[in-house]
Amino acid sequence: MFVYLGLLALRDTSFLTYEYRWAASLIRGVGGLWVVWLFRRHLPPWGKAHVLLAAVMGVLIATGWYYGQYFFNWLGLPHRMPLPIFSGDFELVDPRDSLGTGGLFWSTVVTRIVVASTTVAVVEELFWRAFLLRAFIDWSEFEKKPLGMFTWKSFLLTSLLSTLEHPDNWAVSIPCWFAFNALMYWKKSILFLVFVHGFTNLFLYIWVLVEVLHRGNEQAWMFW
Predict the structure, then answer these.
(1) Is residue 83 a part of any domain in this protein?
(2) What is the pLDDT of residues 167-200, one digit of tens each?
(3) Which of 21, 103, 177, 183 makes the best surface tag, with the fewest CB within 10 Å?
């Protein structure tokens, strides 16, 4: 997770121009999976994929994320999490302003979607569901706790901490993580959650592109 976050910082660093963000995303994607591969012998059992069910759940969660954000905006909640560590106001950015609409734009789009649907899903599920969901039950011997073991403490803490990873969609991230945790308690399978997470990101990003490019709804870039 630390390697993944470090490579994420590389993408957002100020000395890297916007035109090369696609390369930074690619490095994060390959680097994140490479570290997972290096530590593969220390990982818990992956479980069953349940691909069809994962696809359905991914579509439902992505739909909830999309319309849920609009709902919280309607309620008047601040878009960016109101904490001092997240300074500044949320700013809607249209990547076409910097990348145009040609090959550079599409290479950036494709790289972002592929990484979000693969590396992001694998790394985050290993961290949140395989590790942290158990670590909040017993930090010193978390590996002895079965996957999908439930306590209110771990359920609520992991869900609330997810807001730190999604400060610009903080309100909707909480019920999203409720859903992800509930699915883990149900199927007790990391691989299933990886597929759910991957399908969620894939469907959401495709939805954003459809909204922006075919329906002219530029507000959808807030999910990008």
Answers:
(1) yes
(2) 999 999 999 999 999 999 999 999 999 999 999 9
(3) 103
88-133 pLDDT, tens digit each: 788 898 999 988 989 999 999 999 999 999 999 999 999 999 999 9
Give the range of the structural domain holding residue 171, as residue numbers without chain letter. 45-223
Angstrom distance (rounded) from CA 109 to CA 111: 6
Domains contained in the chain, number: 1
At 164, the amino acid letter reads: L
Q: Determine the Cα–Cα distance for residues 54 and 49; give it in Å rounded to an integer.
A: 8
Which two three-digit tokens encode residue 202? 């894939």
Residue 84 lies in a domain: yes
Closest CA to 28 of 1, 46, 59: 1
- Evaluate whether residue 34 is within a structural domain: no
Q: Is 8 within a domain?
A: no
129 by Cβ neighbours in 10 Å (0-12 / 13-18 / 19+) ranks as buried
